[in-house]
Amino acid sequence: MKTLFLRLSLGLIIAFTLSSCSSIRVSYYGNNEEKIKSIALISTMVGKVEQSPLPLIDAAIFNGKLNKIADDIFEMEIRNVDKLRNRYAESLNTNFKAKVLFGDSLYKSSEYAQLQKKMNSKRSLDTNSERFPYIIIPKNEFNPFQFEKANVSAYFNESGKNYTQTVSEIATKLNTDLVAVSYSYITTGAGSFGINGAAQGVTYLYLFDKKGNLISSSSNFSKGTIVSGSDVNQFNDEFDNLLGIVEPMMNKVIDKFLNPKK
């Protein structure tokens, strides 16, 4: 009886998650920045699908189904990472009214090539996950950061000693006012008896000044979707939902820049 109650409770939690509004969080640590003329979007990362291990029986059933299509989900995210990068670039440009360096215009520059030769840390993207083996980045992009166990959020939540010098060198070499880094992933939870579950998109944006100081961190979560765990198209739809939560978050970010005391 107790087990049934817990499973039913989880079902209600999932229902509540899916019906709740997306949650935008923005922190601003700057000091009325000078006019921002250019932003370098140097990293667009998509992490592994975060699968909840609880409740044990329900999660085992649901995750078992998901694991069978993990390769398809991974390939889908590889195909779509450029869309996410482009959405971020477009949103940064629209909200900051600044030139955004990204994609081929960035990757093919001699300055970027020099940075890549010096800083490329491909191994830091390894997740040690059999089904989602590495953090996905766009083709021709490189990773300059030394993540531990592919834990991006923890890396940027630590003191600036992790990244300040690296970002400062990048900003100087690219002659840009801000450096932007995004990290996104899909998280899942199992419903009652593992018949269905919930998938939710999560995205983070980190903005740094010329000196490599983190001056803004923000996040947003999609409303989530009920998924069977065995249909990759449902995860593709949730990735599309992920694209949709970038602009509302960016609206809040620019508001903080313009009204830091608000």
Task: Walk me through the structure.
- 44% of the residues lie in helices and 21% in strands.
- The protein is of the alpha/beta class.
- The chain has one domain (2-258).
- Strands 1, 2, 3, 4, 5, 6, 7 and 8 form an eight-stranded mixed sheet that branches.
- A hairpin with a 6-residue loop joins β5 (178-190) and β6 (197-208).
- α3 (70-96) packs parallel to α8, α3 (70-96) runs parallel beside α9 (246-258) and α5 (110-119) packs antiparallel against α7.
- It is globular, with a radius of gyration of 19 Å.
- The termini are far apart.
- The model is unreliable at 1-10 (pLDDT under 50).
Question: Can you give keywords for this protein?
Answer:
single chain, 262 residues, alpha/beta, 8-stranded mixed beta sheet, 8 strands, 44% helix, globular, disordered N terminus
List the helices and strands and how they pair.
Elements: H1 2-19, E1 24-28, E2 38-46, E3 50-51, H2 56-68, H3 70-96, E4 99-101, H4 103-107, H5 110-119, H6 152-157, H7 164-174, E5 178-190, E6 197-208, E7 214-221, E8 225-227, H8 232-244, H9 246-258
Parallel strand pairs: 2-4, 2-5, 3-5
Antiparallel strand pairs: 1-7, 5-6, 6-7, 6-8
Helix pairs in contact: 3-8, 3-9, 5-7
Number of domains: 1
Oligomer: single chain
State the distance separating the first and last CA atoms: 50 Å
**How would you describe the shape?**
globular
Using the CA coordinates, give the radius of gyration: 19 Å
In short:
This protein has one domain. Helix content is 44%, strand content 21%. The chain has nine helices and eight strands.
